[in-house]
Design goal:
- The protein is of the alpha+beta class and 633 residues long.
- The chain contains eleven helices and 36 strands.
- The strands form eight sheets. It has an eight-stranded mixed β-sheet with strand order 29-30-32-31-33-34-35-36, with helices on both faces.
- Strand 29 and strand 30 form a beta hairpin.
- Helix 7 packs antiparallel against helix 8.
- It is globular, with a radius of gyration of 25 Å.
- It starts with 5 loop residues before the first helix and ends with a helix.
- The mean pLDDT is 96.
Length: 633
């Protein structure tokens, strides 16, 4: 067995977006590096025979960002996006398996956002923004580039590529709306088209509408508005005609669990098919018959079939089942799945299981001595059943405690810890466990995996019950002799960073804290963050609600900065548009004002997720050093 290094964490490659061929015997997946050394991620397409994994081979040889593999109906041709000709500008490519030759099918100057091969083998539907005009080029050359908000906003439009001529046409449909997703009816009928009023992440997801488009005649029909953050379109036949399903936030609040919505296309009757479920749907997948639904189910994942009477469970997968793909008949599926001590790989099998692993993309981790991981079930102060994970220091058992404990709340908050390998570039359990720490990974209310009401309970109440949920778990671990009460730390990113910053303003129990791109002021985040109104639903108000104090002030860590005595490590990407850098800058100034020991580290060129290799290494090493400084005896 070997030790874990920072280089082992960031230098690996991970499979993404597997795509099963309709024949069920071929599969393509994207192999992507976990960190970036240059300006772009250079990804690879790999092909594998699902009956003989040893046949895995790289499909293309170019240095490029390649993504979104999709198959022709006869499984003889693979389509994909690649920017091999002009880095940063993706075009649709076609790889004919018989001769192994790949060629570009488009040269759209603004690039292709997404695409869908249609039942008519000569047509591909494209999503692409308008190409720059001569006037645009002149404005750029002359630096006459004042931005008028709302004017010339990039919007993806529906376009059709004729494979016989290579011509791209743009039907005059849907006005100036931004097209976000397409799905063709299984019998080759019309396209379901999901649009938004804008590509702006604050406004657009709240304005979704469904339409039909016939690629043969050009006819359209409007099906009406959909819930916020709608996605994952799927068709299926019913006794009353065709149904169209999608996932969306359960109304009326912009925070809560997602649901499967079922629209009867002829009658336009809309139903919530997962109302009251104690699980959360994360994916809806079309087949020729009933669609498949993936549910976050506590620490694990459930795969179900959406039958007329409701979801029918097909299998329960330990940990996470992600990026599911299926044959048209739905008899074979592929997905990313991993184990407690193994990273995600592509697995294949029938929908009712079992699934076989057909890739092994990180063999370098096979000899690492990881910390022992186990599920943790406990109750909140008000009696609510909660779950999470406990990871012990590598090579240790409970009897060797008490240990220094670092609690790492997850982001979102509509996310969760699944019972899978907890090893990432950001503060993660196995990175700390291999350095002698016990790690508590809580799933407090507000997260995914326990239904709509569980997730809804933090709307306007962040930092309230979810905070005491964390404390209940920590108190249990102290009482059981696992955690040393004098050596407690807390760390988190995004919403987990909010809880870490919140914690040090509420208690002096923690000896050290780490806040990575954390929310410090909910009012400021609603005003400047990428998802403003969604953040306002969490904080409870916006600054324009009238003269303060506002509800969001009472749940913002900045309001309690004068109480902080715990040393804090602040980390933030300089170009983060989700939780802008100003959040950490605000906390830094407050901590400096009150004389609190802290470090503030800014990563140039980085957004909400840190991508560059040297920056990821810095975070890993800095995290360990910070907690070693304050939690070691």
């Amino acid at each position: 067995m070997s030790g874990l290094t920072a280089e082992l964490v960031v230098d690996g490659r991970a499979p993404q977006t597997p795509a099963l061929a309709p024949n069920g015997h071929l599969l393509c997946y994207v192999l992507s590096p976990l960190s970036r050394t240059g300006a772009r991620f250079d990804t690879e397409l790999w092909l594998v025979d699902t009956d003989d994994p040893a046949t895995a081979r790289r499909a293309t040889a170019d240095t490029a960002t390649e993504s979104r593999p999709r198959w022709s109906a006869d499984s003889s041709t693979l389509f994909f996006l690649s920017d091999r000709a002009d880095r940063g500008t993706a075009q649709v490519h076609r790889l004919v398996l018989a001769d192994g030759a790949a060629a570009a099918l488009t040269a759209w100057r603004s690039g292709i956002v997404d695409y869908l091969p249609l039942a008519d083998p000569i047509l591909i539907a494209l999503l692409a923004c308008d190409e720059p005009t001569d006037q645009d080029a002149r404005r750029a050359r002359d630096r006459n580039d004042a931005i008028v908000v709302g004017e010339r906003e990039p919007r993806a439009r529906l376009r059709l590529l004729d494979l016989r001529t290579g011509l791209v046409t743009t039907p005059e449909v849907f006005g100036d709306r931004h097209v976000v997703e397409l799905r063709q009816r299984p019998d080759g009928g019309p396209l379901a088209v999901l649009t938004q009023a804008s590509s702006d992440n604050d406004y657009g997801p709240r304005t979704g509408q469904l339409h039909l488009f016939d690629p043969t005649t050009g006819a359209t029909a409007d099906l009406g508005a959909v819930g916020a953050d709608a996605c994952s379109l799927a068709w299926w036949p019913g006794e009353d005609g065709w149904h169209l399903g999608f996932l969306a936030l359960t109304p009326p609040v912009l925070q809560g669990g997602t649901a499967v919505f079922d629209l009867a296309v002829d009658s336009l009757v809309l139903r919530n098919r997962t109302s009251g479920f104690p699980k959360c749907p994360t994916g809806l997948h079309q087949t020729d018959a009933a669609p498949l639904v993936v549910f976050a189910d506590g620490l694990n994942t459930t795969l179900a079939r959406l039958d007329p009477t409701g979801p029918t469970t097909l299998q329960q997968q330990p940990g996470l089942l992600d990026a599911l793909t299926t044959t048209p008949a739905g008899t074979t599926i592929a997905a990313l799945a991993g184990m407690r001590y193994q990273p995600p790989n592509v697995h294949v099998g029938p929908p009712n299981g079992p699934l076989r692993k057909i890739t092994d993309t990180r063999p370098e981790l096979d000899g690492v001595a990881f910390g022992s991981q186990r599920p943790l079930a406990y109750r909140a102060a008000d009696g609510l059943d909660l779950d999470g994970l406990l990871v012990l220091p590598a090579g240790k058992s409970v009897s060797d405690g008490p240990f220094p404990l670092v609690t790492i709340p997850h982001g979102g908050p509509y996310d969760r810890y699944a019972d899978r390998l907890q090893l990432f570039w950001f503060p993660s359990a196995q990175w700390l466990a291999t350095s002698g720490y016990a790690v508590f990974l809580p799933n407090p209310r507000g997260g995914q995996g326990h239904g709509h009401q569980f997730a809804l309970s933090v709307a306007g109440r962040v930092g309230r019950e979810e905070w005491t949920d964390l404390l209940s778990g920590i108190d249990l671990l102290v009482a059981e002799g696992i955690a040393d009460p004098d050596r407690l730390g807390i760390a988190g990113g995004s919403h987990g960073g909010f809880l870490s910053a919140w914690a040090v303003g509420q208690t002096d129990r923690f000896r050290a804290a780490l806040v990575l791109a954390g929310v410090i002021d909910w009012g400021m985040l609603a005003a400047t963050g990428e998802y403003g109104q969604f953040e306002a639903a969490l904080g409870g108000s916006t600054g324009w609600d009238g003269a303060g104090p506002h509800p969001h002030d009472a749940v913002s860590p900045i309001s309690y900065a004068s109480r902080v005595r715990t040393p804090v490590l602040l980390l933030h990407g300089a170009e983060d548009t989700n939780v802008p850098l100003g959040q950490s800058e605000y906390f830094h100034r407050a901590l400096r004002h009150f004389g609190v020991e802290h470090e503030f580290v800014i990563y140039p060129r980085e957004g909400h997720s840190i991508r560059e290799r040297q920056h990821q290494l810095d975070i890993l090493l800095r995290t360990r050093a910070w907690f070693d400084r304050w939690l070691r005896p």
